[in-house]
Each structure stands twice: as structure tokens, then as C-alpha cells.
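Model it.
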Amino acid sequence: MPGPLGVGFGYIAGLPSALYGPDLLDFIEITVETLCRPRPAGRTTALIPVPERMERVREAAARLPVTVHGVELSIGSFHGMNTACLEMLDGFQFEVPFLWHSEHLGFQTTLGPDGTVRETGVPLPMPPTEEAARLVAGRAASIQARYGVPFLLENPAHYLRALPDDPGITDEFGLMARILELSGCRQLLDLHNLYCNAINFGFDASRALDRIALDRVGEIHIAGGSWMDGFYMDAHDGRVPEPVWDLLEQALARAPNTGGVVFEMLEDHAHRLGPDAIARELERARRVWRHHRIRDAVAA
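Modeled.
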């Protein structure tokens, strides 16, 4: 991983440019799919950047370092990844070099009976099996080689209880560990996703940190969520819950190779919450980051 950056925030074009400056941020995380024209459902080709959006991103990237967080690659789809995402990223890296690249561990497309690609509607988790681990690990290693920067896989929030599993892997933590072992990649530890799964499936999120190779964590995400139909959802719709702040303190104390912490929000909710409230969350994240990194420097 590159040297530690600090605290980042996702790029949202409609927010004030002052939010994307060194007073609040150390880097910007860009989801390249949001820079493109809308696509018909199921279409897996021709992600075309909108020139005006790219120009705004180039201006922001001139002020702060950039990382990339993808959402549509569908790295776990058996029939193949959405290669349009990679083709667009090839051009993006040429214009806006990024320090690392991350994607969600899961899949969101399948093949229909007629052989066409179909959206699943929501991202779905991979089963904790050796076959799934090898499928994803091979693709992750190839992506890391393609861009010459670290590639990270994010632990997902999911809402399915009964998934087939293999002995020795058994669950989401074993699956991630096996993929990292096989691929040589790193993990994007999404603490809000961990918190969601802990609530919905009834396990202790703090104890689950013991199942994670924290020395392999290259980035951490924090976010807010809300309840829907009896599930706590990773909605990215508000402030970070206190238990997630607690998890951040615990994780940073034990994850020495983390390059940065990103506060996530979806665009509609970011405008509703407003830049002042977003700034307060970023300021708190920076205080936590600096506390742990200063302590690490003193200990060294």
C-alpha cells in the first residue's frame, strides 16, 4: 500500500467544492460509474464518461490524491465480470492516476434463460466455498496486475442466511481470508457492513474483528444506515452510528497498514444531510485517525 493518507470522502459533484479541500480531507474516493451516462438495465458495455463530470473530477483531483471505489464490476458473477468497468477504468487511470482501487465482493448480474445478462436487483453475496474463492481470487489478481496499484475487496452487507459452504471456509470471514491468501490482494474493511451483518445475523461485531486479517486491511469505510422491513440496511443515508465509531477505534488500533478511512454517503442523502453535517463527521474521523497514527509514531 502507498503511505497512509488519512481521511477521505466520496466525490459528489453537487456538493460545495470547499468540502473537497485539505482542511477537511486528505484524499478523494471516486466511483467512476457515477461519471457516466445512465445505462439500460443489463447492459454491460460502453460506459461513456460525461465530459462535464470528468472535468469537475480533474479539478478536484488537482487538489487531493485520488482512490477509486467501483460498484458495478460484479467480480463474482460466474459468467464473467462487467469488463466495461475495467475498460472505462483504463482510460480514467490515464487521465486521473489513482493510488488504489477497490470493489465489492459479490455479484449483481446473472445470465437469463436466453443467455442475456440480467441484473439481480441488489448485490448478492458469494457462498463461502473454495470454488467461489478461487473464482474471485484469480480475477482480483489479474485486476491488481492490470493497474499496477493495490486492489482491495470490500466485505459486503447481505441479507441471506442459508448459503452453501465448504469445511475450512464456512462463512464470510473465512471466504475473505481465503481470497486474500490466494490473490495477494488486500481488504477494504467496511465497518458499517460488518455492523449491519452483526445486527441482522446476531453476532458480535467486535469479536468478529478477531476473524479478520487486520494487517491485510488497506482501507476502512464508515457510513450510516436505517431499518427497512425488519432488516438494518447499509443505506449510506446519515451519520455514523456510535457502535461503528467504536469499531473504528478498535480496528485502527490493530490495522497498521491502513491507507485511509472513508466516510460514505449516497448523493441524494448527502444533499439532504448537508455539507455542515458531513464536515462534522469528517472532522471526527480525522480526530480518530490522528489519535491512532500519532500513537503509532510515538510507539515506533
